[in-house]
Amino acid sequence: MRTDDLVGLLSTGITPVRRGAAARRFGISLPIAALGATALMATVFGLRPDLGVVVKTPIFWEKLTLPLCLAIGALLATVRLARPGAKVGAGWPVMTTPVLVVWIAAIMIVVTAAPKDRLPAILGHSWRSCPFNILLLAVPGFIAIFWAVKGLAPTSLRLAGAASGLLASSIATVAYCFHCPEMSPAFWSVWYMAGMLLPAALGAVLGHKFLRW
C-alpha cells in the first residue's frame, strides 16, 4: 500500500475538533469539580467551626495557596495534554514551585521544633483520613475532567490521565481546606500531597483505558 493510500485510509471518518471545544468542555467540567467537591465537603465533613477566625490569619491563605497553585499548573498541563502530541509545558514550574516552597517550610519547622514535637507536626490529628478524604472529594471532578479530556483527542494517555487526576484532586483540596483543622506546612507537605497524588496515580492507571479515542 502506498503512503498516500495509507494516510487516506487512516483519515477516513475523522472530523476535526470544533474551535473552542476545549474552553467549552473545561467550562463545564471545572465548575462540576469545584461545586461537587464543595458540596461533598459540606455534606460529609462540614465546615470547620472556627472558619470565621482562621480566614483572617495568613497561615490559612498560605495553606490554600498550595492546592490553588497546583490546580493552576495542573489545568495548564491538562489543557495542553488534551491535544494530540502536546507536552506539559508551562505547567511544570507552576506545579513544582509551591511544592518546593512547602517542603522547605516543612523542613524548617521540623528541624527547629523540639524532638517531641516533630512527629506531631507531621502527623497532626488527621493523617490517617486526610488523603482519603481528598480522594473522595475529587470523585466528581475526576469524572468530569476525564470526560473533557477524552473529547479533545489526547495522545499521551497516561500523562494526560495523571494531569487530569491532579487537577481534580487539587480542586478538591481547595474545598477540603475549609474543613481541615491542620495548620502546619509539615502536615500539608506530606498528607495533602498524598491526597492529591492518589487521584493523579489513579488517572495515570486509568488514562490508557478511558482516554482512548
UniProtKB/TrEMBL annotation:
Sequence intervals crossing the membrane: 26-44, 64-82, 94-114, 134-152, 159-178, 190-211
A Pfam family hit: NrsF
Alphabetized InterPro entries for the sequence: NrsF
Keyword line: Membrane, Transmembrane, Transmembrane helix
Listed name of the protein: Anti-sigma-F factor NrsF
Organism annotation: Paraburkholderia phenazinium
